Amino acid sequence: MTPPTSLNEKPSAQASSGTQSTPPKNRSNSNPLEARKVGYKEARNIMEVELRGHWVGPMPYNEFMEKFMSTDDPAPVGVVDENYFATIPTEPENKMYLPFKWLNGYRKADTEKISDDKPTNFEKLDLYIEVKTNVFPFSDPKPNCSPEERQKHQFENRGDLAEDCRGQIGLVMAEICARQYRTHSFMVFLNHKEVRFLYNDRSAIVVTEAIDYRTESKKLAEFFWRYSRMSDAQRGMDTSVRPSTPEEIGKAETALAPYLPRGETPRPYITLSVPTADGAERLVVGRDCMMEPDSVTGRATRAFPVYDLKTGKIEFLKDTWRVDLPGMDKESDILKELNEKQVRNVPVFVDGGDVLGSRQTTVSHEFENASWRAGRLAVLVPRAHNRFLENFIGKRLSKFTNARQFLIIVMHAIEAHHDALYLCGFLHRDISDNNIMITNGGRGILGDWDMAKRVGIPGQKPPDPIPGARHTYRTGTWYFMSGLLLMNPYKLHTLQDDLESFFHVILYYSLQYLPHNKQLDEVQYVITDIFKQCRYQTFTGLYIGGTGKQSMLLFPTSVGALTLTDNEPLTEWILSAQAALKSFYLYVCTVSDSHPGAGNSPAIFPPDAHKLADHTYFLHLCATALAVPDAAWPDNRNLEMLVPHLPIKTTKRVPVLKRTADGEPASDDLPAPKKGRATGSELDVAHKPPYIVLQILVRLGFNPLISNS
């Protein structure tokens, strides 16, 4: 049987005699839990903040067409008059959407509703068209302004309406790229006066100059003419992924059944091509994801079990947009080297590498220094699509059976971290609960090496610096990053930062899952003011935090002594590790007089601080605790975490704007609060063009029903 060629087949338009009304459904592709937690106004606000400095514009129209929408045939001349769109209503959005009543599932745009009579199916949405009657999210500089004036110009308009609009656009872009396998996507923005065309990949969003479509109607018509003639790959579909054939599903579904989520509407089976060293095609079949990307830019990691059609085995697939900079190794290459050097307690690499093909590397960052670009910009990170297989499918750290096993699992992760540094010269740089997994036999595995950096083996000559390789951004998961990194975004990431992250993992999980002497409100305080604590500095464009962690380490009485119930070994581990970290903080920091009781405490305590010179002390603490007989360890634990994970996005990437045009270092890997995804309930008709646009689409042969809602 010939396999289907696309995950995004274009549906035909279907007329309907009226609207349909069905109860809201909790569909995996339309009503994500995260958005219901924070609400759509909050989600749009968070997305707008995250994307500050990632809107690259205003790109000239002709350059946009040439770069992103090139076709073999020249655009037709005279299809429409220049004032063809002059009669589009300038009244509220519902008037612009009125002609769509005949479409199946039509209703007027209402971006505040959470329930929906028929949520948009983002898995089939091809082109998103946003209509706002009187909102201007972007502002072009004057045509003949100087480069200095362009740099200072505010391209991203301020104000609630403009910011809300950009947040909504970002949410939809994120949802499309999360529900589909895409390398990039396009979007059209219309208000009563102008149209802009947008192109986004995993680095940034390119925005055209404003075009008055009432007097330059040919440009709007040309966009749709070109788009209707572009291939799936040109439109942004990842052609290395396709729907599985019945034969492939028959081979895979029984083997995959134990790994599929329960209680959710299943997503379709898909077949993915995994790159191989010899160039041969290696196909795997999967269904659904353990995690999905919820940002427009960034790594967009997908990771889930797949059935290998070559071997008939279940493997674990990881699909990510890695940082493509000198000095940053591919995770697939890192795993191979860790395996070759026999590093303990890490996944075993099977196959894979960078995906080859059209637009499998980002291009939006290439316009960072374009002469037409205006406004402040974040550090735009080039990215490449990487996909590989490993042989380990583990359980989450939260599935530990008791406190003793929990410490064993973390100790195994520390051993992996030690071996990677001392055998291969790699520093992990993202120690978190999500990256410490459990084998079926109860061992710990340290995974997710995509942010690891080759720093050299301690005691040996460090690697030669690579020209142009410096990229000043923090890495890590916000809850577990060291206080020093959170306070100073430009700090060099060191071994001590990762050791502190191991401490935060043990402390956080002890508070959440093990019996102790703290009241619920005390734990809530610790989670909010120590692990979650962060603030956004508008004047620098930076997220900073860490003061809560610093206070906890330097002044333990600020949160009170923690005692785990009937668990002296792990209590002693926490107190001893905390004391070592306190000494290290005193070694590297000057204690502020603003802290009560600090007085004139000396800033340097070298002997105790040296406990964190390597892994020895933390491993010694583990061995000492585990030497205590099993009978002294309690078996009880909380089945669920004590305080639900608060909605802050523990991501590796968030925008940081360049402060000036003078080349100061800037960072883009800071945290952002957890946001919800846009759904059909919010954006049911946002992609549906107004009536006159519909006419031109039909005339040009372009399918007007862009989404099968």
From TrEMBL:
Molecular function GO terms recorded: ATP binding; protein kinase activity
Pfam families (alphabetical): Pkinase_fungal (PF17667)
Region (Disordered): 1-37, 661-681
Domain Protein kinase, residue spans: 254-598
Polar residues bias locations: 1-32
Domain of life: Eukaryota
Alphabetized InterPro entries for the sequence: Kinase-like_dom_sf (IPR011009), Pkinase_fungal (IPR040976), Prot_kinase_dom (IPR000719)
PANTHER family found in the cross-reference section: FUNK1 11 (PTHR38248:SF2), FUNK1 6 (PTHR38248)
Protein name stated in the entry: Protein kinase domain-containing protein
